[in-house]
Specification:
- It holds the Pfam family DDE_1.
- GO terms for molecular function: DNA binding.
- InterPro entries: CenT-Element_Derived, DDE_SF_endonuclease_dom.
- The protein has 21 helices and seven strands.
- By secondary structure, the protein is mainly α.
- The chain has five domains: 81 residues, no CATH class; 181 residues, no CATH class; 206 residues, Ribonuclease H-like superfamily/Ribonuclease H (Nucleotidyltransferase, domain 5, 2-Layer Sandwich), CATH 3.30.420.10; 63 residues, no CATH class; 87 residues, no CATH class.
- A hairpin with an 8-residue loop joins strand 2 and strand 3.
- Helix 1 packs across helix 3, helix 6 packs across helix 20 and helix 10 packs parallel to helix 11.
- The longest helix is centred in the C-terminal third of the chain and has 72 residues.
- The chain is extended.
C-alpha cells in the first residue's frame, strides 16, 4: 500500500542527500584513480568521465537522475565545501555539533517517556542560542522547528504520543528484567533431575474488559469535506470480563466470561461456539472466588495433555492469582505459577503485547456486523456468539506463537526486551543517566565518586573504617585509577553549596546546584587568511605558514568544543530542572498503602512455600477482618433497635414531664388568683405558692462506641436534644 505523497520540501531534501552521496563517491573514486597502479597502454579517467559514470550508477541504483558537474568534484578536491554546507555555516544559528547534541537530547527524553513537540524543541534551541549569543540574539525564525525536524528526518520523526503510567515506567527496569528471566529459566529447566517444561505446557493468562456498546474507532466513508464521521452506538458501558488463556505451542483454551450480576440468570444461556465458562460477579470483574474456580477448570482442561508433567502458568499480580485456594490447587497439581513484575505487562505479557489489540479490533468488526445483519443490539443474551467470531480471528496460531516469542518466553531470549523498552525507568534509576552522555573520563570520575560515597555509607552503617578494604565485590571501584581524584573532588565539594551531592542525607527538591552562567562565544574568523594565501619565498616562511595554519585549526577545534560543551551544559540544566520538578511532585504526593502482598514489584514464583504460607496468612487476616465486620454489623443492628426503643421511651418521658409542667402551671395560676383576692380582702392567702414536683430524668442515649469524655451529669436534656441521632467514635475500639 503506497504511503502519503512527499512534500516539495521533502523531495528537495532527498534529492540533495542523493546528490551529495554520489558526489562524495565520485570524489573518492577520482582520488583512487589518481593513485592506483596504471597498466601499460591504459589511461586514467578524467573528471568528466568519472562524473558521467556515477551519474549513470545513481540512475540505475536509486532511480534518480542527478547532475554531477566536474567543476563541483574539482572544488571538493580543493577543500571547498558544498553550497548547502556553506550556507548552513553562514546562516544557521546552531552549529552541526550543537544540532547533534539537541537531537541526542530530544531522543533521550523521548526514550524516557518525555517526548517533545516542535514548540518545546524551539524553546530549548532558544536557550542554547541565548547562552551562545547573549541578549543580542533576535530569536529563531518562523517554522524553524519544522525545518530542523526536516534536516534530521533520519533520526527524528513526528508521531502520536501514547500515555504511559508512571508506575509502568518505573517497573520496566534492568533489575526486574534480570530477576524475571532468571526465575523463568529456573522454572522451565527445573531442579536437578526434573524434566524441563516443554513449550506445549507453557501457558499465559490475562483478563480484558469488553463493553457491549463501545468499540474502537474505524476508518469509514463520509462526506469529502467532513473530518469526522459520527457513528451511532448503543453506548452500553457495562463491563464484561473475558479471561483468555494461550499456550506456547500456538493453541488456546476456551475462555472464561464474567457477567455483571448478583445472581445467575437463565437468559444468559445462549449459543456458545467456544464452549466458554460462564460466571458472574457484582461488578463484572474477576475476584478470588472466581480465580479458584478458574484454576480448577484450567487444571481439568490441561491435565490430560500434561500427563503428570510440570506445567508453567504466567500470570500478572492481580489479587485473584495469589489466594490460598488458587495457589494450593496449583501446587497440588504440579502447576508452577510465575508472576510478572508489577506494572509491566505492557512488556512481558504476550496477550497485552500481541493479542488484545487485534482482539478489540476484531470485536468491533464482529459487533458492527451483527447489529447490521440482525438490527438488534449486542447484549449479554448474545455476547458469547458475537465474541466467538472475534476470538477465533484474533487468536490465530501465528499470533499466539508470536506473543510468546516477542516477550522472550519461547524461545527463552531476554534480549528481546531491549534497552529502549526499559529507557523510561532511567528517570527513577540510581545510576547516572543524563540525557546527553558525558565524555568517558567525566563519566568515569562520576561513577567513582558515586561508588566511594556508597562505600562510605555502608562502612558507617556496619561500624567499619571507611578506608579499610573489604572482600565484598560491591566495594570494588568501577575505575580504580580514578580513586585519588575522586576523593579530592569529594573533599572539595563538602565545603561548598553542592555538599548535598556527597552527603548521606536524602536528596530533596530544595537542593539546587549553582546555576551555570553561559557566556557569549563569538563566531570563528580566519584572521590571517591573507598571510596564508601568500606564496612562501623561503623554507622558513613555508614552515611559519604551516605553523600558523595549525594554530588556526587548533583554535577552531577548541572553539567548536567550547560551543558544544556550553550547549551540553544548557541542555543538562534543562534536564535537572525537569528532574527537580518531578521530585517535588513526588514529595507532595501521598503514599497510599493498598495492603498488597507483593509490593516490591519483583517477579515471583507464587507456588513457592513462602508465598503459599503468605497466602494462608492473608486468608486468615481476611477472615478475621470479615468476622470483625460481621460483629460490627450486629452491633450496629442492635444499636439501631436500642435507639428506636430509646426514642419511643424518651418521647413518652417528655410527654409525662409535660403533664407535670402543665399541672404546675395550672396550680400557679390558681395561687395567683387567690393572692389577688386575699390582697383585695386584706388577708393572707390560704396557701403558699405551689412548687413543681420532680421530673423524670432522661435515660442515657444508647451509643455505638464508648465516649472518650465524661457525659455531663445533672443536666436534663432538652426536647430538641432528645431527637439527635449522633454517633461518637471510640479510637480504642479494635476493628
Amino acid at each position: 500500500m503506497p504511503g502519503r505523497a512527499l512534500s516539495k520540501e521533502e523531495k528537495k531534501r532527498r534529492l540533495r542527500e542523493i546528490t551529495e552521496k554520489w558526489t562524495e563517491r565520485a570524489v573518492n573514486a577520482y582520488k583512487y584513480e589518481k593513485t592506483r597502479p596504471l597498466e601499460p597502454g591504459k589511461t586514467r579517467k578524467g573528471l568528466r568521465a568519472i562524473s558521467e559514470e556515477f551519474k549513470q550508477q545513481c540512475l540505475e541504483e536509486d532511480k534518480v537522475l542527478i547532475t554531477i558537474d566536474k567543476t563541483t568534484i574539482s572544488r571538493r578536491l580543493n577543500g571547498v565545501p558544498s553550497q548547502a554546507d556553506a550556507n548552513f555555516d553562514k546562516n544557521s544559528w546552531l552549529s552541526r555539533k550543537e544540532e547533534k547534541a539537541l537531537v541526542k537530547f530530544a531522543l533521550a527524553c523521548a526514550d524516557q517517556g518525555f517526548p517533545w513537540d516542535v514548540s518545546r524543541l524551539e524553546e530549548y534551541a532558544n536557550d542554547v542560542c541565548l547562552a551562545k549569543y547573549g541578549d543580542d540574539f533576535p530569536g529563531l525564525g518562523q517554522n524553524w522547528g519544522d525545518r530542523f525536524v526536516g534536516r534530521h528526518q533520519g533520526e527524528l520523526k513526528p508521531c502520536w504520543s501514547h500515555a504511559l503510567d508512571h508506575q509502568r515506567a518505573r517497573a520496566a527496569n534492568p533489575v526486574t528484567k534480570k530477576e524475571y528471566f532468571t526465575l523463568l529459566k529456573k522454572a522451565i529447566e527445573g531442579e536437578e533431575g526434573e524434566e524441563a517444561i516443554p513449550e506445549e505446557l507453557i501457558y499465559g493468562v490475562h483478563e480484558t474488559g469488553i463493553q457491549c456498546g463501545v468499540g474502537q474507532k474505524r476508518r469509514v466513508l463520509g462526506r469529502a469535506e467532513a473530518k469526522i464521521q459520527q457513528q451511532q452506538r448503543s453506548g452500553d458501558r457495562e463491563n464484561i470480563t473475558v479471561i483468555v488463556t494461550i499456550c506456547a505451542d500456538g493453541s488456546d483454551l476456551p475462555p472464561a466470561v464474567i457477567f455483571k450480576g448478583k445472581t445467575y440468570r437463565t437468559s444468559w444461556r445462549q449459543n456458545n461456539p467456544l464452549k466458554a465458562s460462564l460466571g458472574h460477579s457484582e461488578k463484572g470483574w474477576t475476584d478470588g472466588e472466581i480465580g479458584v474456580e478458574w484454576m480448577k477448570e484450567f487444571d481439568r482442561q490441561t491435565k490430560a495433555k500434561a500427563n503428570g508433567r510440570r506445567r508453567l502458568l504466567l500470570v500478572d499480580g492481580h489479587n485473584s492469582h495469589y489466594t490460598a485456594g488458587f495457589l494450593r490447587h496449583a501446587q497440588d497439581n504440579n502447576i508452577l505459577v510465575l508472576c510478572y513484575p508489577s506494572h509491566s505487562t505492557h512488556i512481558y505479557q504476550g496477550l497485552d503485547v500481541v493479542i488484545f489489540s487485534p482482539l478489540k479490533t476484531a470485536w468491533t468488526e464482529a459487533w458492527d456486523e451483527y447489529e447490521r445483519r440482525t438490527g438488534q443490539k449486542v447484549n449479554k443474551q448474545c455476547f458469547l456468539e458475537v465474541y466467538a467470531n472475534a476470538h477465533m480471528k484474533a487468536l490465530s496460531k501465528q499470533n499466539i506463537i508470536s506473543a510468546f516469542r516477542v516477550t522472550g518466553v519461547v524461545p527463552l531470549n531476554p534480549d528481546v526486551i531491549t534497552e529502549t523498552m526499559l529507557a523510561p525507568s532511567r528517570t527513577s534509576s540510581t545510576s547516572s543517566s543524563l540525557p546527553v552522555p558525558l565524555p568517558s573520563p567525566t563519566q568515569a570520575l562520576s561513577d567513582t565518586i558515586h561508588a566511594l560515597i556508597a562505600r562510605q555509607a555502608r562502612s558507617e552503617d556496619e561500624g567499619m573504617d571507611s578506608d579499610s578494604g573489604t572482600d565484598n565485590e560491591r566495594d570494588v571501584l568501577p575505575h580504580p585509577q580514578m580513586e585519588v581524584p575522586a576523593r579530592r573532588a569529594i573533599d572539595s565539594l563538602q565545603g561548598t553549596s553542592a555538599s548535598f551531592l556527597v552527603s548521606r542525607s536524602p536528596l530533596t527538591s530544595q537542593h539546587e546546584l549553582p546555576r551555570y552562567q553561559p557566556y557569549t562565544i563569538s563566531p570563528f574568523q580566519q584572521r590571517y587568511q591573507g598571510l596564508l594565501d601568500l606564496t612562501p619565498a623561503t623554507e622558513n616562511e613555508r614552515r611559519l605558514q604551516e605553523a600558523l595554519r595549525e594554530v588556526e585549526q587548533r583554535d577552531r577545534r577548541r572553539k567548536e568544543n567550547m560551543v558544544t560543551m556550553q550547549a551540553h551544559s544548557v541542555l543538562q540544566d534543562v534536564y535537572v530542572k525537569e528532574a527537580r520538578s518531578q521530585l517535588q511532585a513526588a514529595e507532595t504526593r501521598k503514599n497510599k498503602d493498598k495492603g498488597l502482598a507483593m509490593d516490591d514489584g519483583l517477579p515471583k514464583l507464587l507456588t513457592d512455600t513462602i508465598y503459599l504460607d503468605a497466602a494462608d496468612a492473608r486468608e486468615e487476616r481476611k477472615k478475621e477482618r470479615d468476622q470483625a465486620k460481621r460483629v460490627m454489623a450486629d452491633k450496629r443492628d442492635s444499636h439501631k433497635e436500642a435507639l428506636r426503643v430509646w426514642k419511643l421511651a424518651e418521647k413518652a418521658r417528655v410527654a409525662r414531664n409535660e403533664v407535670i409542667r402543665q399541672q404546675h402551671r395550672d396550680a400557679v395560676k390558681e395561687w395567683e388568683e387567690e393572692s389577688k383576692l386575699a390582697k383585695a380582702e386584706k388577708r393572707r392567702a390560704r396557701w403558699t405558692k405551689p412548687k413543681m414536683g420532680p421530673l423524670e430524668k432522661a435515660v442515657p442515649k444508647p451509643v455505638l462506641y464508648k465516649r472518650k469524655a465524661k457525659a455531663m451529669e445533672g443536666v436534663e436534656e432538652s426536647d430538641e436534644d432528645s431527637d439527635e441521632d449522633g454517633i461518637v467514635i471510640d479510637e480504642d475500639l479494635d476493628e
